[in-house]
Amino acid sequence: MYETNIKGIEEIVKENEEWRSGCINLIASENVTSKRVRKAMASDLMHRYAEGHPGERYYRGTGYIDRIETGLKEKMKKLFSADNVDVRPICGTNANQAIFGVYTKTSDIAFVNSTPGGGHISHHKSGNLGMLITNIKDLPLTEDGYHIDIEDTKSLVNRIKPKILVLGKSLFLFPEPIKELEDVCKENKVKIIYDAAHVLGLIAGKQFQDPLSEGADIITGSTHKTFFGTQRGVILSNVNKKEWSKIDKGAFPGSSSNHHLDTLAGLAIATNEMLEFGEEYAKQTIANAKSLAVSLDKYGFNVQAKQFGYTMSHQIAVDVAEHKGGNEVSKNLEKNDIIINMNLLPDEEVNKAKIPKGIRIGVQEMTRFGMKEPEMEIIAELIKKCIIDEAHIKEEVNKFRDNFQNIEYSHDN
Length: 413
Ligand code: DSN
Description:
Blueprint: H1 6-20, E1 24-25, H2 35-41, E2 52-53, E3 56-57, H3 63-80, E4 84-86, H4 92-103, E5 109-112, E6 135-138, H5 150-160, E7 164-167, H6 178-187, E8 191-195, H7 200-204, H8 211-214, E9 218-222, E10 233-237, H9 241-255, H10 261-298, E11 302-303, E12 315-319, H11 325-335, E13 338-339, E14 341-343, E15 358-362, H12 364-368, H13 373-387, H14 394-402
Parallel strand pairs: 1-13, 5-6, 5-7, 7-8, 8-9
Antiparallel strand pairs: 2-3, 4-10, 9-10, 11-12, 12-15, 14-15
Helix pairs in contact: 2-10, 3-10, 4-9, 5-6, 10-13
Bound molecules: D-serine.
């Protein structure tokens, strides 16, 4: 049913807010922002334009925006030990578009993670890389499906000589083999682009790999999954000035015009929060993911990558084929206010995307609400009750979630 009446729309917004506050959200690509970040977004900045760079805009009236953007860039450089940063992409896909446009021309070849292997849509034929080039090859995986096969990749790089190698993905359990592939890429003049959208906050918190120091040429990412928001994109790199000036043009005017100053101010506050609380938050997030994996395994769920300790990130993957697959499981959980997404697993065909056997679970949002290992055990038990016992648990979920309403790792409280 559609709502066109203003009051009706406002009512939907309110209802969504209320409903969400009772849900256990385990979507791996989302997070919540602090009250201070939200306040900065609901300001006059949302009406303004600021193309170009601070101090050299194509618009007048940007003095305050310039101060925010300059400060944000300095903080990002510090957080990621990067000489260059572009905070203007309005999302991760937009950041990827800026980079892909700089480093590829029609006849070039790219290596990426496959969709079942976790690769993001923007890296693929149907996404923005596919709009630039057609020759996109999937990186080979080891038998377990959650790691890139290093030796096979090295020989493919030597033989095929792609222009870019895109690491990082959406189903992202373990660090990528950047160090191991750095030499072969350098010898063959292959640029390593690392899409950190999912793990940006874990990198900022120094609990995941450090892509730039390990040999990646460029990091792209979104700023709202394990990072503290707002929904935007970022590009980070230590390439030389001449190369960076091409990336700069890729970001503007290449892939964006104005860059949404309300979310820019929010991101500036979120970045301060990351500098202050990022390490503690990232540690807890990863500990929570492991704890949830162990508890789900204990209840008999087929949690993936057990032989590798399940995960080193905010995510876990579960094969729920024996429970009617990811589509059914995610729908049943949603009916009980537990929100997750169905997900292809590495050994599935891409045409199964709407009926995959897997689910992907991310604990970063519930961690931000202050949950720790004991709460992960409760969440596992709730999932077990819903999926294995087929019990109605909505009220139990809402009651449990009631105790976790404050945004932690912030100065909200
Ligand atoms: N597709 C999103 C995800 O859920 O991983 C990222 O853009």
